[in-house]
Amino acid sequence: MAQAPRLKIAIADYGHTRALKSGAVPINGVEVDFVQVVPIIGAFRRMVRDLEFDVCEMAPTTYMIARALGAPFIALPVFLMRRFHHGGFVVRPDAGIKAPKDLEGKKVGVRAYSVTTGVWTRGIFVNEYGLDSGKVTWVVDDEEHVTTLKLPPNVVHAPDGHSLQSMMKAGEIQAGFTGPAGVGRAGPPISGWDKTSQAAAAADTYPELIANIGQVEADWFRRTGVYPIHGLIVVKDEHIKRYPWLPRSLMDAFATAKQPYLDALKAGAGESPEDRRYRSFRSLMSDPLPYGMAANRASIEALVTYSLQQKLIPSRPQLDQVFVAIDP
């Protein structure tokens, strides 16, 4: 029997990956070295820039940009984080912004133009509310994961020494994303930045742009079938070619590791913000963390459309060019 490949894997700590990272659920045919990277976006950068890992979690838009530019890795339809994106976007009360269309002519803060949260929300504002994204000045205060990405002319960098949080407070920007995607942190990515930062608390003092977020998001999901994807898994092309059984082995391991977490949610266990979010989604879907192409095709197609509209990728790829077509 051929020796099992030893693969370096970087994924974040989630309830649904705990059994995998502890070794309780093995990846058949693979010897694993898990690498801990906090925050996990550091792994995204190390993968797209230096190809450091064999298997890596990555933001979907970062992946699509990198793949379009020739990156030698491909995605599995394993999505490690999910949330809706009508919420998490706040405005200054004195900015006169009552609807997404009112953002035209304004300055809006987002950590980086290609951050997946920003792509989803911009896409929703454009396609559901009629926003012309090109008439908004998008102010960023961090670097893009893919350094060769050419940004649209209406994307500008915050002045040196200024964060989105400080600019929002001063009225230099009129709206922004909460949390790590925008005004909910100050400075570059560091461990715990979305839990301990005073900026996170400051972001909560601004009103959300969209009212009745939960109901609006549920109605949108029922109408479109789109459930925003985050945190997909990429594998180096060389491993897919050399070990054609590897995608199935990885998919089976992720799916097996997820099941105890889903059972715990169903039983009411878990009180983290992620636990509560996924448990609340069970009224919309039986599995709040669906894997595979069949369950996620509408969501993948929507993100591809939004990325194309926002000039992040040059053309619409065939899905089999960017995903290994596999289901649990």
Give your account of this protein's structure:
Helix 4 packs across helix 12. The strands form three sheets. The protein has a five-stranded mixed sheet with strand order 2-1-3-12-4. Strands 6-10-7-8-9 form a five-stranded mixed sheet, covered by helices on one side. Strands 5-11 form a two-stranded antiparallel ribbon. By secondary structure, the protein is α/β, with parallel strands linked by helices. Helix content is 38%, strand content 13%. It folds into two domains: 172 residues, Periplasmic binding protein-like II (D-Maltodextrin-Binding Protein, domain 2, 3-Layer(aba) Sandwich), CATH 3.40.190; 131 residues, D-Maltodextrin-Binding Protein, domain 2 (3-Layer(aba) Sandwich), CATH 3.40.190.
Strand arrangement within the widest β-sheet reads: 2-1-3-12-4
* H and E order: EHEHEHEEEEHEEHEHHHEEHHHHH
CATH structural fold name of the largest domain: D-Maltodextrin-Binding Protein, domain 2
Strand segment tally? 12
The separation of the N and C termini measures: 26 Å
Instruction: Give the oligomeric state of the chains in this entry, treating copies of one chain as homo and distinct chains as hetero.
Output: single chain
Assign the CATH class of the largest domain: Alpha Beta
- How many independent structural domains? 2
Give the radius of gyration: 20 Å
- The pLDDT mean sits at 93
- The low-confidence parts are 193-197
| CATH architecture classification of the largest domain | 3-Layer(aba) Sandwich
Largest sheet: 5 strands, mixed
Principal-axes shape call: globular
**Annotated CATH homologous superfamily of the largest domain:** Periplasmic binding protein-like II
Query: Which percent range describes the beta-strand content?
Result: 5-15%
User: How many helices does DSSP assign?
Assistant: 13
Helix percent reads 25-40%
Give the helix/strand class.
alpha/beta
